[in-house]
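Quick log. Single chain, no ligands specified.
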Amino acid sequence: MYFIDVIIPIPLQKLFTYRVTHAEAEFLKTGMRVSVSFGKSKIYTALVFSVHNKVPLTYEAKDIEQILDEVPIVNTKQLKIWEWIANYYMCTLGDVMRAALPNAFILESETIIKGGNGVFDESVLKDDEFLIYEALQHQSSLKIHDISNILDKKTVLPVIKRLLEKEAIVVEEEVYEKYKPKLVRYVKMHSKFSSEKALHDLLDGLNRAPKQSKVVLSLFSISSKTKKPVKVSDLVKQSDTSSAIIKTLIDKEILEEYFIQTDRVVYSGEDTETSKLLNTYQQTALSKIKSLFNTYNTVLLHGVTSSGKTEVYAKLIEDTLKQDKQVLYLLPEIALTAQLITRLQNYFGEQVAVFHSKYSTHERVEVWNNVLNNERKAQVVLGARSSIFLPFHNLGLVIVDEEHEQSYKQFDPAPRYHARDAAIVLANMHGAKVLLGSATPSLESYYNAKQEKYGFVELLYRYNNVLMPDIELVDIKDKLKKKRMKGHFSDRLIAEMNETLTEGYQIILFQNRRGFSPVIECVTCGHAPQCPNCDVSLTYHQYRHQLRCHYCGYNTAMHKTCEACGSPEMDSKGFGTEQIEEEAKLLFSDYKVARMDLDTTRGKHGYEKIITALEQQEIDILIGTQMLTKGLDFRNVKLVGIMNADNMLNFPDFRAHERSFQLMVQVSGRAGRTEERGKVLVQTYNPNHNILQQVSTNNYGEMYKEQMNDRYNFKYPPIYKQIKITLKHKDYNRVETASIWYAKSVRQLFGDFVLGPEAPPVARIRNQFHKNILVKIPKKQSLSKTKEAIIKINNSFFSIKDFRSVKVVLNVDNF
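-> predicted structure:
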């Protein structure tokens, strides 16, 4: 008797055991996919975890349906990192599998319903049954969700069951493979025209069909020039005909068609550039990093903005490639990859592969297969957080750029992992080195460097000794008193903008809120339109003339009159990127204004278009949200304006000050990256705030000291570890009682280190009420024991009947 343990992509704690034959057991290896039936009628793609001969004790093992792979698509090192993520972040291997594998690898089962065979007496059918039976007379098959649409109700299984009993329909499970390789259609002359005589006869015969003869002649001219296979699309273009004529020639057996599988993402250029020569500061930093790698596995590079960190990375990548090892280069934002791809491809040509969520399923599968087979075109992988799951063979170096970024943390759905921390573990498993780079390192990494857990290197001068930007704080409270504001622009900002534009430089304006204005209020009665599903006011988006909720996506047309009292006077409070854009267009009507936020970068190439337009100086003023802050390199930007620094500082979160400092320093870093010194204007109601003073002098050390002091006093990371438990349910009272029970149980074990239950600032999202409990874990307390205790409480929580419908989210290192 042979068995396999498999991972199924659903959030259940255990592995499942299936029975296999002797031959299958010999063929199957860890990391191959099989399809298995699970539950009553579902078929899932499962991943083989181990092959053994232990009989499962509690249930009868089923047989597998079929084997889907010839060779493993997941290697053993990947499974190790999966297990670590599942353990550390308190989720299941199924969760990790769903996050790690491209969708196309996880086949789903879809129930297909077809009409029964033979003659059938329709009079025995009830109304709802007849509707389905009739639909099947017009259509060959239906899926479950089609039927729920026809009957307009969710529970349709009873109806299907009755139809099955009456033998009016048949049901079959269809497992479909989602990845289809991209095939490109080529043509060549049919083999029977290989002799010259046959060819002459053919051309004579085509005299009366000038278009067909032109196609044949074009085919000759292309293939003699390029000596490569000829694509149908090229032939159509060259001969200026339609594909119908080519089809006629194929039908007449004059041409033969054939297909070649190609990659969807192809790099066309050459690796023309050698990497740049480093200046003395970069050279010193590079040699220091290399020597630290002898004693430390992880090194933190703290380099001010525009100090040329990317060039240092390029040199390290070169060294790693010489040792025939792979490199993983992690970036927080897709916006950044657009700019970096070109730079890295100029150095390393087609060895660079890119992996992120804006790529289609098929493109991701191709990158996966290239990394799995250790192809030349996947030696350097550039990607967002999900690229840590790729099947590396011999990883030599991991670079985490902008390591302080919040985007490295996945919040929903599980696994709620932090890509920077997971990448360090991944590198350890491969015996690889990790370089963390940032101008404003996260407090945890800086703390680890101070504790000598990581090596530490500083780059304190900008490339070409360009001066750091001059940062000036503008007191808006004072300006408002003196009536010196035009909309949201102070006279100081307008004057600087005019000067910059006349000199021919560009400007970036930063406002961390998209939309036109976050609150619309009735002047008469003060009513503000709220989202029906969440506890937030709706944001007005002017370009679509609608009110939108940024939490659940609900939208409605902008109201002409107040819903509460009918008054037509509606006023907007607060401001977002759209409003700044409109005001800038009025104030600077002769210049080109654009904006970059989630609304303008929805497409696959949305980012690239805007970034390229700014680089080619088609845009004079760019207004954006925090997308703009991440390591982008714009040569001609001289002025950066931060429209309102206060809404970031006053956020109810223990990291608000650290985050604001990072954000403002990063935005400032976009200014003056060439000879001219850049200028940054920060508009604020409170210019004496400590953080703003530290930003204006770019004093990271001072900020670190002050923030760490608070973290010590109030027991926050990195001094204490943290696990956040969120409970959600649509009934407020149920969440209330459940969270009190949960907090009480956790408090019995951990006493004062438990905070809550507390409602978050937005207490209801998508009609679910939220309650948070925070568990703080001192350094001396075992993290794994704490997690075990929480899981025990979690299991007994779900054994209480009233609480079963409450959703519990466990988030380790939730910051």
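The first strand starts at residue 2 and ends at 7.
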